[in-house]
Amino acid sequence: MGAITLTGTMDPRRFDPGKCTIISWNVNGLHQRHSMNQFLPVFRHNPDIVCVQETKTAGKGIPKDLRRVPGYTCYSDEERREKNTEVALFSKQEPDRVSFGFGNTPFDDEGRILIAEYETFTLMNMYFPLGIGPADTLEHKLAFYDAFITYVSNRNNEPQNLVVCGDFSIAHTSSDIAKPVKKNTQRAGITLQEREKLDQLITAGFSDTFRIFNNANGHYSWWPNGFSLDERRLGWRLDYFFVNAFVRPYVTGTEMLAWYEGSDHCPVMMEMEVPKKIFRGKSCVHELVRKPGTGIPS
């Protein structure tokens, strides 16, 4: 297969201040998706922002040509030289501030968190733990969710316009899984303890944007063997956009882009009108913020 070029396939103009399209995608290896020409086509939707999870690469290991996608700037935690940073962001508009952790929590060094603050909203790009295996246990996953819910609840109380997207590694309800699983209380991704965490997020004032418009079954973003389209009959919905009450009135749609092959997840796209600015109690200063202890001034 020949190389894919984006020349003439996208609008290189700056971020449209009246609307915003965001794509979130667990790519299951950014190098592999790119080498197989399966990543760049997502930019043909002309998104303002692309959030990537499970990059399986260190920040400086992102291919150089991906850092020069026309019209976009790539953000990742380049200080993680020896460890993977599992999230990256491609943005038309330069954020006012980018950070890579909740701040002083045990989870800040896992490479799962990217927070981009724009003039009118804050975007969180998240790759939640699976909760499987001797290291990534269910207890670890639940504790990560507790730290996350505490963080977004505090920011929601300031108040701020908040958008959270990514691979949440939980199918929230029975409508988010194609086929009932026997002993589902024992399987990671659909245990009662995990589903209760998304209940808590909703109680904290956040809305699952896909369910604002569509309550039907049959819409999934992950497939156990779903690397090709003919294997995608039975899936789970694990990838979400959640927004707080300040942003919800501006959301105009969310869609599963299930025709993209390569990863076992498909991209999810949300469109919104850019919410009105909410005074956040401090001026917006452009800076790249590192975690405490890295030796880099914040």
What does this structure look like?
The chain is α+β, with helices and mostly antiparallel strands. The chain has a single domain (20-281), classed as 4-Layer Sandwich (Deoxyribonuclease I, Chain A). The protein has helices at residues 30-35, 138-156, 192-203, 209-213, and strands spanning 19-26, 49-53, 73-75, 87-91, 97-99, 113-117, 122-127, 162-167, 206-208, 239-244, 251-256, 268-273, 287-288. A seven-stranded mixed sheet has the order 9-10-8-7-6-5-13. Strand 7 (122-127), helix 2 (138-156) and strand 8 form a beta-alpha-beta unit. It is globular and about 45 Å long.
Keywords:
single chain; 298 residues; alpha+beta; Deoxyribonuclease I, Chain A; 7-stranded mixed sheet; 6-stranded mixed sheet; 4 helices; 13 strands; 21% strand; globular; disordered N terminus; disordered C terminus
- Any guess at the CATH architecture? 4-Layer Sandwich
Number of helices: 4
Strand-residue proportion: 15-25%
Question: Which outline best applies?
Answer: globular
CATH-defined fold name: Deoxyribonuclease I, Chain A
Task: Name the helix and strand elements from N-terminus to C-terminus, one letter apiece.
Answer: EHEEEEEEHEHEHEEEE
Cα-based radius of gyration, to the nearest Å = 18 Å
List the uncertain runs. 1-15, 280-288, 290-298
Q: Please, what is the CATH homologous superfamily? A: Endonuclease/exonuclease/phosphatase
Largest sheet: 7 strands, mixed
